[in-house]
Design brief:
This protein has 250 residues and is an alpha+beta fold. It is 34% helix and 23% strand. The protein folds into two domains: 86 residues, Phosphorylase Kinase, domain 1, CATH 3.30.200.20; 132 residues, Transferase(Phosphotransferase), domain 1. It has a six-stranded antiparallel beta sheet with strand order 1-2-3-4-6-5, with helices on one face. Strands 7-8-9 form a three-stranded antiparallel beta sheet. Strand 1 and strand 2 form a beta hairpin.
């Protein structure tokens, strides 16, 4: 270490309190959640009162703002996909003498799918409703894949759900950056999407009692079997639109 310099303590906990300013025009209202990369807050734009979300990255997870910039670029490239949160702009703020990258995006009023599932009887969703969730998820990720992108971290805590009438509005959060798109990465999205469906239904405990139409989609979570039936997200979406129910709907 050079003479006269001070080693800064690693920032593992940003912990912004309500009322704290973010940039020249935003005020923190509350913490929404946190993860490996950083923390997400509900913020309010002071001039307009509009509420948005702010993701603040831990500096050691975001050297030279590479992760936050890549994330912003990815969100911008997918801005026409309804399942993707709309990115607004990038900010840099100083916390405990350290520069912290911050992405400002739309605030979704939905709740994590994980929590929504737990609100149901038996902490699981009945098959037909779970199929509706799967269909909206498959359609959303299909649009991402059509733009030669991927998510790479699809699970029930990274999906926000908001029931609206007879449909569901889903939003994907926390895209994971594995570099350039490959077929393997899109296949992982397919496998993870089927796993979300499996988890909605209650997992292994209830799997054997599911209708055969449901078990056909889950395929026992066998990677090769799932990908042979649904080699693309479009194939999964098309199956959901066309298959015939022979069992009693539950």
């Amino acid at each position: 270490m050079a003479r006269g310099t001070t080693r800064l303590k690693r920032l593992d906990d940003i912990d912004l309190q309500p009322g704290r300013k973010i940039g020249p025009r935003y005020v923190v209202e509350r913490l929404l959640g946190y993860g490996y990369e950083g923390e997400v807050y509900q913020i309010r734009e002071v001039p307009t009162g509009i509420r948005r979300a702010a993701k603040l990255y831990y500096p050691h997870r975001n050297p030279k703002d590479r992760s936050s910039i890549r994330h912003a670029q990815k969100l911008n490239s997918l801005r026409h996909c309804p399942i993707v949160l709309q990115f607004h702009h990038f900010e840099q703020i100083t916390i405990k003498k350290q520069r912290v990258g911050c992405l400002i995006s739309e605030l979704c009023s939905g709740m994590p799918l994980e929590h929504w599932i737990k609100q149901h009887t038996g902490k699981r969703i009945r098959p037909f409703r779970a199929l509706m969730v799967l269909y909206h998820l498959a359609r959303g990720i299909e649009a991402i894949h059509a733009l030669r992108e991927y998510h790479a971290d699809v699970h029930t805590e990274n999906i926000l759900i908001q029931p609206i009438g007879v449909r569901f509005e889903l939003k994907l959060i926390d895209f994971y950056d594995w570099g350039r798109m490959t077929r393997y990465k899109q296949q992982m999205d397919i496998l993870d999407t089927v796993r979300v469906f499996y988890d909605c239904l209650g997992g292994a405990k209830h799997y054997s009692a599911q209708p055969p139409e449901v078990r056909y989609i889950c395929a026992g979570l066998k990677r090769g079997l799932i990908l042979s039936r649904f080699p693309t997200m479009s194939a999964l979406r098309q199956h959901l639109e066309q298959f015939e129910w022979r069992s009693t709907l539950a």
